[in-house]
Design brief:
By secondary structure, the protein is mostly beta strands. Helices cover about 5% and strands about 45% of the residues. The strands form ten sheets. It has a five-stranded mixed β-sheet with strand order 2-3-7-6-5, with no helix packed on it. It has a five-stranded antiparallel β-sheet with strand order 10-9-8-39-40, with no helix packed on it. It is globular, with a radius of gyration of 28 Å. It comes from Pseudarcicella hirudinis. InterPro entries: DUF5018, PQQ_b-propeller_rpt, PQQ_rpt_dom, Quinoprotein_ADH-like_sf, WD40/YVTN_repeat-like_dom_sf.
């Protein structure tokens, strides 16, 4: 009897061992992964198995329309389209991987030329990011010692950004290497740094810091001159016909000689001016936190007309076809006749914190504007009719980022730490890039053709 029990126990152990062995080698029929992706002679891709995205950079000049990929898969999986078949990678291509049990997983492949459009944007974590426009993949990042509220600009291979550490930085646009920095004069009355978006023209970079406007050599950072305003200068300057225009915290709009900083005239509104002026047809258009939009004679500063809204205005005005566009914290986007100031139409946003503090971008027959209710709007700029609305984030009192447009793609930052790329025709999200802080900054884009694209907040957009 004892021997029989021993024999039975041995049989059970053998059976369990065989069962466990069989189970351990049984393949998982649900696995459906792309494990490798490459183009012959062009390097391997970076595969994100969590987001199911694939990124690959190829040399400039590569014909993206007929690349042939080599695709490796997990065991017993198949893919469609199949490996070894040419595809048009000038736009994202989707691949569907099917496992042995029939379940599927979609991967999206992004291929970009090494010399491609690059989006630059600052973040409250003190960093400037360079991101590939097609895919949202980070090219490089560069750090400052303070948070960034202003927006970058580009000129001759350099990207410029101001920081709350009281410095203006110049970085290589291709590598992020710092070329120089310039420290503004200390102001005992405030700890504010540089929130103004710089403007570059004729080799000179203009920007505001504390209560001064500065002009530097754009290549070296050497100071040419500075002008002391009555209040803080958060306004981004605009240069036109040899004059530089900007506003200050005491409600003044100034016109200075762009070469030497000599004051030509000043105009006083009822409250702080934090927007950048718009110049067209011999008139300077400027908004104020006194709830008004002003049209001034560009040579004399004399007021031509004013238009009152029901909220303070931080939005910089946009201009197209003799129409002026500006948003207000009353939740409306206004279109005004540029010569008379009469209202053509008004678009009203809704929801909590439906202020408009960002600046509109007007291109073609469309107008794009970001609102504090968390939505980005695409409007018909001749009628104000809404074409689309895309909800990007929760309502906030800090959505200052203004959109930039390149090749039918819109780029805009958000308080949720993200830079978004949207389809300009529909508002559909193409990708998002997550920075390390809130994005108050507006994007600036360097096209692969060398052209620079600005948001409405920049004086270079005028």
């Amino acid at each position: 009897m004892k021997k029989l029990k021993i024999f039975i126990n041995i049989c059970l152990l053998v059976f369990l061992a065989i069962a466990c062995k069989d189970k351990s080698v049984e393949p998982d029929t649900s696995v459906k992964e792309i494990t490798g992706f490459s183009f012959q002679g062009l390097g391997n891709a970076a595969i994100d198995r969590f987001k199911h995205t694939i990124f690959i950079n190829v040399p400039d000049g590569t014909d993206l329309s007929k690349l042939i990929p080599s695709i490796s898969l997990s065991a017993n999986a198949s893919v469609s389209p199949v490996s070894g078949v040419a595809q048009d990678f000038s736009k994202p291509v989707s691949y569907t991987v099917t496992s042995k049990d029939g379940s599927t997983q979609q991967y999206k492949v992004f291929v970009q030329l090494e010399n491609s459009d690059i989006v630059f944007i600052g973040s409250s974590n003190g960093k400037l990011y360079a991101v590939y426009a097609l895919t949202g993949q980070k090219k490089w990042e560069a750090g400052t010692a303070g948070y960034i509220l202003g927006s970058p600009t580009l000129n001759d291979g350099l990207v410029y950004i101001g920081s709350n550490d009281r410095k203006l930085y110049a970085f290589s646009a291709s590598t992020g290497e710092k070329k120089w920095d310039f420290s503004i004069d200390p102001d005992p009355g405030t700890d504010a740094g540089i929130n103004s978006t710089p403007m570059v023209t004729d080799g000179i970079i203009y920007f505001g810091g504390t209560n001064k406007l500065y002009a530097l050599d754009a290549l070296t950072g050497e100071k040419k001159w500075s002008f002391s305003a009555a209040g803080f200068v958060r306004s981004s300057p605009t240069v036109s016909n040899g004059l530089v225009y900007f506003g200050d915290g005491f409600g003044k709009c100034y016109a200075l000689n762009a070469k030497n900083g000599t004051k030509i005239w000043e105009f006083t509104s009822g409250a702080a001016i934090v927007s950048n002026p718009c110049i067209s047809g011999g008139l300077v258009y400027v908004t104020s936190t006194d709830q008004k939009i002003y049209a001034l004679d560009a040579r004399t500063g004399l007021k031509t007309w004013e238009f009152a809204t029901k909220g303070f205005i931080e939005s910089s005005p946009g201009f197209l076809n003799n129409t002026l566009f500006a948003g207000s914290t009353d939740g409306s986007l206004y279109a005004l006749d540029a010569l008379s100031g009469s209202k053509k139409w008004e678009f009203k946003t809704f929801g909590n914190l439906n202020w408009i503090t960002s600046s509109p971008l007007v291109q073609g027959n469309m107008l794009y504007v970001n609102a504090n209710n968390g939505s980005l709007y695409g409007l018909d700029n001749s009628t104000g009719l809404k074409k689309w609305e895309m909800i990007l984030s929760k309502p906030s009192d800090g959505d200052f980022s203004s959109p930039a447009l390149v090749n039918d793609m819109l780029f805009v930052g958000s308080i949720d730490f993200k830079l978004y790329a949207l389809d300009a025709g529909t508002g559909a999200q193409i990708w998002s890039f997550t920075s390390g802080g809130t994005i108050y900054s507006s994007p600036c884009v360097l096209g692969k053709n060398g052209k620079v694209y600005h948001a409405g907040i920049s004086g270079l957009q005028q």
